[in-house]
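Hello Y.,

Per our agreement to keep a running log of every chain we model this quarter, I'm adding this entry. I've kept the format consistent with earlier entries: sequence first, then predicted structure.
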Amino acid sequence: AVVSTQSTGVPVLADEEPKETQHLFYDGESVTGKVNIKLKQEGKKLEHQGIRIEFLGLIEIYYDRGNHYEFVKLDKDLARPGDLSESCSFPFEFLKVVKQYESYSGRNVRLRYFLKVTICRRLVDIIHEKGLVVHQLSSYPETNSPLKMEVGIEDCLHIEFEYNRSKYHLNDVIVGKIYFILVRIKIKHMELSIIKRETTGSGPNTYNENEQISRFEIMDGAPVRGESIPIRLFLSAYDLTPTMKDVNKKFSVRYYLNLVLVDEEDRRYFKQQEITLWRKSPTSLKPENRGVAALENMRT
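Predicted structure for the entry above:
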């Protein structure tokens, strides 16, 4: 069977190479398309006990492979039991589908949406799956105050740093400044990184996986008292997702700005601050601008 849908194509990495083009949907948007069934031999009958299509949303935790957590399931019958003697197409439509979570593929967990077509047969069913991508859009946060923090070692070091906001959309620019109030240790260099923390499980079974998304040096050499260093970090250069908190009580994804100072004896001093990332609505989000998905052939 072949599933084709009308939507914007977004290239995403499949579990294995080569890359697969899946199609993008938003919460509340209808999922429509066609199921095309192509017979190996035209004229030779294919008996079946019915044909159906399902829209599914699953959470898969990799170290718990036996359990898939299904949070949405919609199904429609496309054909009653009978015979197929020639290739044919069946239109399908799932209207205004609630898609409450964003698609996600991480180190230990995957949240995915897909269409599943089943041609029911007496012995072995014929099954075809087609993955979809779902993005969750947000509006500008009502409160978005600056971040101010301090790093200090008594009588040795006092640094203040300030970022312009605490919440950023995925194509935003982080603007900040670092002020050196007191410097009595010999700083060799300073670096800023974005840390992504993926949390799965709960209670004693909680597991955190930290991934360094970016790292760059913002200072090389010893600073002097009263000096300030500007920061500009363009988020669009990195592969980021929105912040996700307690998704279906299975996992969370959070982001942190990590400031690290290294002295001449290679001792490291750091300060970490959480930031919230959100997905801004694209400027053009009109149905007429959407492309028609290419067809994939699966012979039956």
